Amino acid sequence: MNKATKGAIAAGAAAVLLLGGLGSYALWQDTETVTGGEINSGELNFAPVAGTANWTETSVTPNVTLGADPSGFLIVPGDVLEYSTQYTVNWAGDNLRASITADFTNVAGDADLAAALDTEVSVNGGTSLPNGSAVDLPLTTSPQTISVEVTITFDEATADLIAQNESVDLNDFTLTLDQVRP
Predict the structure, then answer these.
(1) 152 Cβ partners below 8 Å, 6+ apart?
(2) Across the strands, what pairs with 180?
């Protein structure tokens, strides 16, 4: 037998002895039950308050109330539409914070007009932030009624014949309530 074979056999025997000692002969063992109690998950949901949705054209004085349906309004560059409504937020949870965003990705219509509309979101008369920014909700009691304003501005720099005689369907935008970590 050559030296390499003898060395391999010796290494294999040592490995068997070492592995055999890992799981053997632990004769004493103790287990204790941990006290802790039951935990429950919280909730976060919201629903519109019936009859509170309203569209207003705010770039003129006095403002023009369009009601719950702005259909028929002919928007021009520089016009500002504000959608205001109320939602009831039901929430429960330690360390729970939430934010709200408006999503216009499903708004159907003509591309040039859709591209010329800038949106902002605010809650309870707070600071308007560009859409896509998280607007933190001041969750204090549950259920809680919040006022949401979504501002849509037709970019006044829209020039030439861009976005003329076009339409977008504002029925398809959504508001999303998301939990955010503190």
Answers:
(1) 80, 81, 82, 83, 117, 118, 119, 170
(2) 97
C-alpha dihedral (3, 4, 6, 7), degrees to nearest 10: 110
Contact 102, 131 (CB under 8 A): yes
CATH of the domain at 159: 2.60.40
Q: pLDDT per residue over 21-42, tens digit each?
A: 555 566 898 999 998 899 999 9
Q: 13-51: buried (b, 16+ CB within 10 Å) or exposed (e) per residue?
A: eeeeeeeeeeeeeeeeeeeeeeeeeeeeeeebebeeeee
Residue 19 inside a domain? The answer is no
**Considering the domain boundaries, does residue 27 fall inside one?**
no
In a domain, 152, yes or no: yes
pTM summary value:
0.73
CA–centroid distance for 57 within its chain: 27
Q: What is the pLDDT of residues 121-158, one digit of tens each?
A: 888 755 555 665 566 776 778 888 888 999 999 999 99
Show the tokens assigned to 70.
Answer: 């702005």
